[in-house]
Each structure stands twice: as structure tokens, then as C-alpha cells.
Amino acid sequence: MIKITFPDGSVREYEQGVTGLQIAESISPALARDVLACGVNGETVELNRPINADSTVQLYKWEDDEGKHAFWHTSAHLLAEALQELYPGIQFGFGPAVENGFFYDVLLKDGEAIKEGDFPKIEDKMRELASKKEPVVRKEVSKADALKEFAADGQTYKCEHIEQDLEDGSITTYTQGAFTDLCKGPHLLNTGLIKAIKLTSVAGAFWRGDATREQMQRLYGITFPKKKMLDEYLVMLEEAKKRDHRKIGKEMELFMFSERVGKGLPIWLPKGTELRLRMQDMLRKIQSRYGYKEVITPHIGSKNLYVTSGHYAHYGKDSFQPIHTPEEGEEYMLKPMNCPHHCEVFAWKPRSYRDLPLRIAEFGTVYRYEQSGELHGLTRVRSFTQDDAHIFCRPDQVKNEFLRVMDIIHTVFSIFHFDNFEAQISLRDPNDREKYIGSDEVWEKGEQAIIEACKEKGLKAKIEYGEAAFYGPKLDFMVKDAIGRRWQLGTIQIDYNLPERFKLEYTDEDNTKKTPVMIHRAPFGSMERFCAVLIEHTAGHFPLWLTPDQVAILPISEKYNDYAARVARELDAVGVRATIDSRNEKIGRKVRDNELKRIPYMVIVGEKEQADGTVSVRKQGSEERGVMTIVEFAGKVNAEVAELLKATDVRPE
Known about the structure:
Radius of gyration: 29 Å
Mean pLDDT: 91
Low-confidence stretches: none
Structural class: alpha+beta
Number of helices: 20
Largest sheet: 8 strands, mixed
Distance between the termini: 52 Å
Number of strands: 33
Oligomer: single chain
């Protein structure tokens, strides 16, 4: 008999070799019907995998990310199986599950291509195969046998993957029907649970992400266990199109891109710049109360700076390449991150334990090379500004500083009404420690500090192994927007390694030299990404304090343009931002056009308003109107802004 421990701490005994499905059946038939995969000691496996020793077990349903992952991983194989039947001679690359569905990279023979018009026949074939409830069979194979099998099928890319990436004794295949794939799993027990299928798009993708290699086609899709779920998802996709920050950003004149300037390099237009600066000012106000000091560092740095930090070794190949100056041997790099510069600020003069914690903040623009196929509006760019800060503290101050940063992030989220968020503790991959720098001792200290801080705050955080930064563990915040999509925004990271690499030190109370601990933190993450998410979350209807134009003044005809200008001056004098639509257009057209610009208030002025010194007020999205004096209206707007900004008036405990 073996002992199985469940997430609630309860323990049951089962015969050795019991499977996840049998455990589910022993609990309830309903659970056995719903369970999709099984977690055994932190590893997600199929429900028919035998458990041969005492283990901690978790059963995953559709509601769990692990359950969806197994469902969509199997769906990726189902897509490949359908493509194999429909397109003889097709070559397969990689086909993983992703956050919302799955994709498969493929290459058709003789320059053929799959188009969106082909999606219905592919979906029909997938449904036909799924209805057969084909078992998904896992098999361990030797490297030689794997090469022989995939070479016989003419799968060039699979053979390259086996030769270059896989080690003998660790290779598994999964077979369903006539299709076999290299895979680590996990998968569903059979394809029968896949009821609703939709291919969503097709794009280009270089093999292994290498622009010098062949360009394949990447087919994206999503599946569900019920048709109703797919219908709801398609409605959400339509809503997402309406909220696309690229579309709204253009309509509201917030930002632009220029091919002449370069791909992935956003230009903030006047209204977008106003919005961004207001966000920065809001965070500055909060940070100042928490004792942060702001700095400005250069946009480039000596290559040696990033060699010292370790960033060049980890990211150098994938970054913008070094800049060579006329002086022989002198190399600079576009700044890919701010932390090495801040280490130099700390090292600028001797520090005492009395100086700590030292909190250095910067709205620092950084540059990272992203492949052109990965660029997407403001969410994936090559130039972005981080609301970065680095806290240098004593080891005994780490947890308290971490808690204070959590307070700042919670405040920021509440101001922008990101009320639905999850936290993820990102730790080292226990099976691959070579990709991290620093000793086991400092990693364990950092990981424990994050776990304790989350417990103290009562924050339920999911632990993800292998997601840590190369220099330290971190706590990431995943925000759900108004239509349920997840975005990774704020982050806090503990770093014992960079201070050692830069030989940073302070004089302790006993007059000995000690190395500080460094905390990296960015509540927004990046200004670009946060703005993109905020646009889509609000559909461009920003909070009144933030929006570039709070009021649109609409004169009924050109005769009242002078009165409109007077209204604008009086509003401006008391801090209300107004714009005048003085076009020679009918008032209905002006209202419709300014609705598109998402300006919170429209005030209509004509003969009566001019005579009485009033404005006719119309709120965005509402037909209701009210007549007020200019002073009354300005007071209403400013009172509403003051109420919204109460959340920024936070004080550290």
C-alpha cells in the first residue's frame, strides 16, 4: 500500500500502481467524469499513469490551468492528425498548448499553404477524428528508435529535434489513431472529450524562431468540452476586437508607429503622452511617501556593465548588438534593463547600515530585440519604459520591504480597477539549475522570503517552478481584464546575486563590510504594456482623472465659438481639461464623433447658454442632459476627480 496526500492535507491509502483516474473514481463518479489530468508531486501526468510510491496528488478539472493544458495539448495533436490526413507529405515542427488554446508549426510540400478558407474542412476532420474517441498512448523509446521512426515518416524537423535536443532514456512518444508525435505530455486519455473546435488564425513562424531558417505556418486553435463554452469564447473574441488597443489608440490619437522610425518603436502622440505622464505622476506621488528617490540614467551603457551583471551572457545573443565607437575596442549597448545602472548608483559612495534601505526609482526606457513576427502593438515592442525601482537593503529588511512593495502594487491595481488578479511565485527549475546564477543558499533565502510575505498578506499565490529570473525568484501579478483575459503586469524580484557581482557593500553596525540584498520592482511592469491593457480593459473609457480630454465643448454653430473659447478658458483656469470641436458640422455629427473619442463629458453651447453663462452637459454614453453654470460644472468635474484619486493618498504603515 502507498499513502496519497491530497491538497487539503488529508491522506488515503491505495494499492501500489493506482492511477489518478482510479483515485478520482474512489472519491466520486462525478469527479471521475470531470477530471482531465493528475498532479503527482508537482508534475502533471495522464490519468492512467501508475503511482508507485507515497505521493502528493492533485486532480485537475477544466477549471484548473493544468486541466486546460492537457486538453489543449491533446487538441494540438488532434490538429496535427487531421493535417496529416488532409495534406500528405506535411512536415511538423512544434505544437504546444498555450494560454488560450494551442498551435502547431507546419510546412506543406511544394510551396503549398493553408489559408483561412481551409479552416472549415480541417475543423470537420478534427471533429470526425475526435468522435472516434481514439486512445492517446504513451510510449518510452530509445533515441535510435525515435530517429528511425520519424526518418521513415520523412519528418526532417522532428529528426533534427531528436538529434540536437533529446537525450537517450528521456524520450517519449504519444500515438492517437495513425498519428505519432514526440512529446513529454501530459494528455487526455482519449480524444472523445474534445467536442467544440475552432481554428482562429494562421501566421508565419521561423523554425526554432531563427530568421535564417525556413518559414513555417503556425496554425492557432482552441477547443472546449462543450459547444456553449466555444460560443461564449467567440463572443469574447468579438468584444476583444472592439477593444483592441491598436484600434482605440488610433481613434483617440494616443500613439503611432512608423516604418521609417522602425518596427516595434512606439511614438507617443500629445494625448497619449499626457495620459502616460499623469500615470507616472500618480506613481511618483505614491513612491515619494514610501521613501523612493528618483534617478535618470543613460539609454546606453558599456558592454562591460552587462558582462559584469551577467545579462550579456544570458541575453547578449538575442539583444541589439553592441555599438562600436571610433575608439578601438570600445563597445556600448542600448540599455536592455536599468538594474546595472542602479547598482552603480549604490556603489557611487560609501554606504552605512543607517542608509538602508536605499530605494532608487526610475522611469527608464530600455531596448530589447523582439523578432518582427512577435511584435504586437504596445504589448510586444522593442522600446519600452519600465516604472523601475531597486531597493538595496539588509537581509533582515527584505521581508518588510517586500510587503511594502506589495502594498504599492495593490494600490496601483485598485486605482485602475484591476480588482481581479492572481499572484504567481516564480521559483527555480529544480531539475535545471545551470541556467541560474548564485548559490543554493541565497536562492533558498529569497524563495522563502517571498512565500512568507504572501502568507503574511493572506495572498493566495500559485507556485511555478522554472519561471524565475536567472538571478532570483519573483512574485508576478496576473490581472484579469473586463472580458476575462489574463495579463502579466506588476512584478517583484529578490536578488542576492547582482550585489555580489558588482561587489556592493555597506558598513554594518559592527563595522564589518556586508553585501546588501537587492529587490527589483515594477508595479506597472512597462508603461507601454500597462497602457495597452488599460485601454482594452476600459475600452478607452479612462478614469476621469487620467483621460487626456475631460470635456469636449460643442458649439451649435460657428456663432458660438467665442463663447466656447470662454468656457474652455474658465475650465482650464480651475484645472479641467477641455477641447473645442469648432468644426462647421451639425451638432449630431459632433456628438457622434466625440463619442468615438471617449471624452467623458460633452458640453453643448448655443444662444441660451451664452445668454445665461451656462453649459448643457451630456455624459459619455448617456442621453441625459443637465444645464449648469460653468463654475458648477467645473466643481462637479473636480469633485469627481478628487474622489477617484483618494486611493492614491496612501501612507506606508
